[in-house]
Amino acid sequence: MTDTPAPRIVALDHLRGAAVLGILIANLPGFALPVAAYFSPAAWGGTTPADVTAWAITYVLVEGKMRGLFAMLFGASMLLVIERADARGGNGAALHLRRMATLFAIGCAHLYFVWSGDILSLYALVGCVALLFTAAPLRLLLFAAAACLLLALANGLAIAGLGTVVERVFGRSTPTDLAREIAAMRGGWRGTIIWRWREEAGPFTAFLANGPETLAYMLLGMAGLRSGFLTGAWPRRRYTVIAAVALLTTLPVFALIAARTIARDFDAHTIVLASFVVPPLLRPIGVAGYAALLLLTVRNGRLAAAGRVALSNYLGCSLALTALFYGWGAGQFARWDRAALYLLLPPMWVTMLAWPRWWLARFTHGPAEWLWRCAARGTWITLRREHCERDAN
After folding, report:
1. Helix, strand or coil, per DSSP, at residue 363
2. Is the pLDDT of residue 56 over 90?
3. Tell me, what's the pLDDT at 390?
4. Beta bridge partners of 363
5. Using the 8-state DSSP alphabet, how is residue 37 labeled?
6. Whole-angstrom Cα distance, residue 317 to residue 28?
7. Residues 216/148, Cβ–Cβ less than 8 Å
8. Phi, psi of 298 (to 5 degrees)
């Protein structure tokens, strides 16, 4: 078995860089505000016109869509890793399972020791299921993805039927519950760990709730890689048509849902409808539209470099923002209005785009990517660029 690195696919890096920047937009309320405020300004964070507008823009343009694009790229990359390992004479499935086991450990550490909004442990669990489809033909991948989306819709309907739980999680939490959460997040690091362990959903609960939709995106990512859609192999005119049709048919619907949610004063059941029932049917179309739009702008620039170190950027954002908002750092949790949070985007984005090119000129992997690769392969991998070739996607 040879270990000659394969060239990177710039289109995948470019898309991944855009996705990780977009995920930060959606995640900001999750770092700074009580958990119920992620879905509803009425729960916390202000209901001024600026706050409601910030929620609406995020809901229409970003919520779930960048996460869906990230999961789609995860599926494409896992298939690429498996196929390239097999082509070198190795065991791609075994390598993938080691990668998922390592990612699950990283995700759990992130979930319990840093921030409760982790997606890595979920991706690791779903990635193990996605392994079953790596040899599937294109039509089966699309059919299985559609079936997963229907299951996600059923999950959303089940959540809508939970009664008082819906109000507690997605509506206006009681003052007692809010005070307990705020006190925990403004307290010491140990207190935040205890809170997350006792109060927040663990990776297996997230798998049951969000696994079907996440698996659908991973399967669509595999199909996108196989068909050439995600690699930029299609004609530009086709990408233009897909972007226009997909975004012009879905974003206005999301805008109408946002307007209805605002008109109903962020009623908990309306929020569940907006975030869990309707999206599985619409979001994949919007995600495809965003992917097509971004593929029209592919270049090997700063965005692609940010995509090569997406895991490091993702974890770095968690460390920086919990340091700002949690009690072990600056203790700003629940002190900012929702609209003010988005003032953090320009400096965060500049940082996320600035450091990767400098780093990658000297090193072959991002720091988190290097740790993941070493642990999954069980061997020390030289990091400095003068000693190594470029890695595959």
Report:
1. strand
2. yes
3. 44
4. 384
5. G
6. 10
7. yes
8. -65, 130
